[in-house]
Amino acid sequence: MAEDPYKVLGVDKAASDDDIRRAFRKLAKELHPDVNTSDAAAAERFKRVSAAYEILGSAEKRRKYDNGEIDASGEPRRGFERTYSASGTPGGQRTYSEGGEFGFGDIFSDLFGSRAGRAPGAGFSLRGQDIRYTLEVDFLEAVAGARKRVTLPEGGTLDLTVPEGVADGQVLRLKGKGAPGLRGGESGDALVEIKVRAHPHFKRQGDDIQLEVPITIDEAVLGSKIEVPTVSGRVALQIPKGTSSGRIFRLKGKGVRNLAGRTAGDQLVTVRIVLPETIDDSLAYFLSEWRQKHAYDPGRAT
Which is more confident, 96 or 77? Predict the structure, then answer.
């Protein structure tokens, strides 16, 4: 059974038309689905408030409700059933469109712009709610882009394109894929938040990719050409003679192409010198001899 519209709007029966209009405007602004995009309770209360104003916003319907001719849902009470003419409208009765005396169109247009208003001669319409989803993607899928399918809570599916360069936490908006609108209103949008799984080696910093690569002591001392992975494949990296652990090499354009698609970041390769698990006698003897003749200060903090 529908609730007493006066209680729903929070006004008493002696309220003026302006009081009722102001109460509805205040509640509609607080509860509108565009303001409460993921609050089901607010959406349900918004429907009740709209139904209450449909009764009290019309002088004729309000009079009939106060006289007991119609109930809170607008249906005739026993003894006040409508008679219908051949045209299908109540015989001898004035009919009201929802956008006419009720003022829904003007109110929603004022509060939320023309999308919540009405076309000439039509009743008010209401845009559907935006619906939020979360989609997990692999690190390399986020870098290169991918086609993915989201499984909806109600069992349906939603196909979408994950664009190249999307970042963790970014939200993709799918126009018209949200909840259907009310009374002919446009559907809401699907808002898909991207969660990027961590990669075992790559890390992202803006549009740059960071990577640590181990090198041997002889590669660091003598120099070498090594192969390193990038997000787009393996490339050769020249290690100069005398490279210290922690040195960073920049691979231009080997990072993430941003969403605008115009530029790509770089890959920053940090080398770490890794000693052999076992230091044999020959290496230990050589370094002990070398240290006696070539001792140097590596710049330790004092």
Answer: 77
Which residues 6+ apart lie within 8 Å of 64 measured at CB? Answer: 70, 80
The residue count for the chain: 302
Q: What does each C-alpha distance from 270 to 134, 239, 258, 264, 267 come to in angstroms? A: 33, 11, 23, 19, 10
CATH fold label, 5-116 = Helix Hairpins (1.10.287)
Class of domain 131-196: mainly beta
Asked whether this chain's domains 131-196 and 203-294 adopt the same fold, the reply is yes
pTM over 0.70: no
pLDDT in tens, 4-19: 999 999 999 999 998 9
Q: Does residue 108 register a pLDDT over 70?
A: no
- Residue 102: strand pairing partners: none
**Please, are residues 191 and 134 in contact by the beta-carbon 8 Å criterion?**
no
